[in-house]
Write a structure and sequence with these properties.
By secondary structure, the protein is mainly α. It has 19 helices and four strands.
Amino acid sequence: MTLSGWMVIALYCVVIVALTRPFGGFMTRLFSGERTLLSPVLKPVEIEFYRFCGVDAEKDQHWTAYALSMLALNFAGFLLLYGLQRAQGWLPLNPQDFATVAPDLAFNTAVSFVTNTNWQSYGGESTMSYLVQMTGLTVQNFLSAATGIALAVALVRGFSRRSAAGVGNFWADVTRATLYVLLPISFIAAIFFVWQGVPQNFNAYVQAATLDGGGVQNIAQGPVASQLAIKMFGTNGGGFFNANSAHPYENPTAIANLVQMVLIFLIGAGLTNVFGRMVGDERQGWAILGAMGILFIAGVSIVYWAESQANPALTALGVDAAAGNMEGKEVRFGVAMSSLFAVITTAASCGAVNAMHDSFMPVGGMIPLANILLGEVIIGGVGAGLYGILLFAIIAVFAAGLMVGRTPEYVGKKIEAREVKMTMLAILAMPLVVLGFLAISSVTDVGLAGLQDKGPHGFTEMLYAYASAAGNNGSAFAGLTANSVFYNLTLGVTMLVGRFAVIIPMLAIAGSLAAKPVLPKSAGTFPTHGGLFIGLLVGVILIIGGLTYFPALTLGPLAEQFALVNAQLF
């Protein structure tokens, strides 16, 4: 570990904290229906869009109507993306003449991008045409991100409204998230990335003679910058290239790498401030961000330490130990930026990678995995991170209420049996599908056939795959060959459960809370904006995650770490 590495990590944290309040203020005004800086230009476009679609943006929806609208949009997006892949061979803008995508892979990919997972069982530059990349994948990057933002705002309204029947209008929330938040910044970011050297064209792939003169290399290009911007800003993570953000065309410079990391956290951090503002106490938002920050800093520190250690197996072969564990990492980023990127992308359900997590040291690879298994509540995916950690906050105040013998309250709303039951349904959905499919994969030939490695590392590859799918992350321990009928179908189902089995109970909670009055504070009210609550919230997240997944982690990365230590000692 180096001082310069820690300075860059500190700079990144300062930038995120500095941007949280102004960006949160902008989104608060936007979703409260107030005038914003962009209103003079975009408000007429928004109104015309509602008129064209026949949407009454002022109509407040009950949580069930909000949920049905969300499901309808996502189902339509799934059908469109699936159809585009199946018809790819007959559609234009296909300079490499890629064939139609197989049904199981098309299903997996369509589910992946609709659920904001962007798991890729394919190589983008060798499988998908320009048309599918743009009108299919990139469009879903916008819509899935906008859906997440809308859902988070709906839950925040549940806490902030008093005796209300509805939680907002889904169509208005999605439109505003797309038009005012995602499109403008993605456009600016795309222009920036083009300036840094990211391609944005419709040209055919370039053929170049290799340096040894013995062959020809295809150099892929295409409309990369436009997909790159929203894949980061919307925490989607699906790369135009198979190597993702480790590819020099997707991540050409150090400043481009830093901007990508800032884009990943920007909306998630800003939404914590939206929560504080809308419930009338900004300290509540800072408390949520504080809990996220503690978990984030701890994760970065552990990964940076682990990856700064040399792999003894490689050292025994004569590899210089001074640089740390550089296997699977870009020399231009090094250990510090690779470690920071890995923690950011798994804390935020982005899934983009600038290093191969499969090559990390056992403990270094365990932290990104643990970030996902904890529900990706450390900033989290756009919207999903906020409503995920608010579910844990409900459990935290419920536990606090039990300890002192009082009815639990959170930001003035009484937490009763209905909210706790719905919260537990949402929280338990992920471990049910992850551990269930992991068990099946571990004992069947079709599951084991995809492994590159045996033993604990191979087990971790499978665990990471299902965790990434259920957490709607999309990153992978790349040693697992997942492009098979078995994995495409089981991972697709896992992604659906990880997304919608959390969303529906969460919206039920939002509707229940919105109908309740706000209780006045009293001498017995548990303060949820200070250090005690932050510590309780962090503890609840770690305890629930630890009790649920510790046995699986013991069989995977922890067993591998102990084996490595044992080899060093003996």
